[in-house]
Amino acid sequence: MSVGKLLLVFLFLLGPFLVAPDCSEAADPDKPLALIDSYRPPKDIEIPRPEAVEYPGVEQVEESIRRGVDYLCNKQNKNGSWGAPKRTKALDIYAPVPGAHHGFRAAVTCMAVTALIQSGDQRSKVQQAIDRGEAWILEKLPKVRRANATALYNIWAHAYSLQTLMLLQQRAGENNEKSEKLAQYTRDQIELLTRYESVNGGWGYYDFTVGAKRPSSIVTSFSAATCVIELQRARKAGFEVSASVTDKAVRSIKRQRKPDFSYLYGAHHWSKPMYSINRPGGSLGRSQVCNLALYRDGDRAVTDQVFVDWLDRLFARNLWLDLARKRPIPHESYFAVAGYFVYYAYYYGSGCMLELPEEQQAFYKAQFAHLLLDLQESDGCWWDFPLYDYHQSYGTAFAIMTLVRCR
Length: 407
Fold this sequence. Notes:
The protein is mainly alpha-helical. Helix content is 53%, strand content 0%. The chain has a single domain (65-404), classed as Glycosyltransferase. It is built from 14 helices and no strands. The radius of gyration is 24 Å and the shape is globular.
């Protein structure tokens, strides 16, 4: 008999006499794991820092914004909206008709109107475009719902409409009747976001689990953070937002946070935190919005240093985002980054920038302005992912809203 076989026989005979380890202190499977409540960047990896760049100049930034505004005015549909389920390709993302496109179009239209208002452009054609967009929103937004049991793209419309409606309310001025109508629309959208929150806390745009009236959505960190930020904005403006709604969402985001403050793509990645998309390179498009949402919720773990480190990563490692820009397949790029995170990341990154002390903001304003001016297309738009006929409008809106913060 070989030595190997003798060893196996010996271990088999000895097995009953081996002392089992004491499992009395083992983790309780029914007890949730502790949330990450402190920032612990890697000790053996130096966080990359971008080189300083020169601010392009006020005139260049204003001209870039103006070109973007002109593009949105020219791109507006005759009915006052932006975007359409056109320009299809063989790689279109799952978007059941018509509901998915109701959500997409409403979200993009709200973003475009917000960008035009924030630009401060008082030209008549811009104000007329805002008026037409507002009329479309007032008619169509109340009808937006989930597309079917599985697709909940409507959450983007409910979320991005909140800032738009509040800006339109300010624009209404002393027109009390219109102002109150817009306020009621805002309350309605808050109610819809509340209705479509996942039973797990937070929001996701797919529900492949149950498909019940109350979604059991696949909660993604970034969609939850987007909704939290907009609900926080509404609460700050005086609208009633249930604390239980945002508290559950915040806990969901925290459950997806890693020690270096990269974030899982979604709660369904809980068992694979080191999968490429969940590493810092894959989290470049998510960490900005998640950090911002948690900071505004009062999370003391999100400090100025967290903002600085992740803004520095955003610019020093921007290549990971740029490699995904304009690729037609979601998540086909390195670190499984999808193109539609590019201008989204810059927009929420600029929000993080504004939370820093004023003396630190100039460095990042120059970075954002330099980057965005270089990426602007010859027709004045910005886009990052071919999404039917919505991408140029939402990309341009994100870019304008970011550049406005760089003035």
